[in-house]
Amino acid sequence: MATETPLWQKVYLGRLGRVYRDTAKIIGYLGCRGTEFFDKAKLLPDYEKFRFENAVRDLTVYMKPREGRVRADCPGQEDPQGHSRPVARRH
Fold this sequence. Notes:
two-stranded antiparallel sheet
């Protein structure tokens, strides 16, 4: 039975580790919206959309928008649209 590769192996040992690290750098600690992410990712020389989409899926948790909800990562700012929060930590 095949098991999924652990995230730390994908980031540090996997053949696509650079994609995961670039994705984490773009998203940053506070997170970003999808359009902001892909605008920055398209500027990278090794950009392949499906690889970056997979990295985003593995590294983030999507927060559904709620009307009038205050963003947990930036107190005092409204978040009317969906927002991706990072799971990866900086060292």
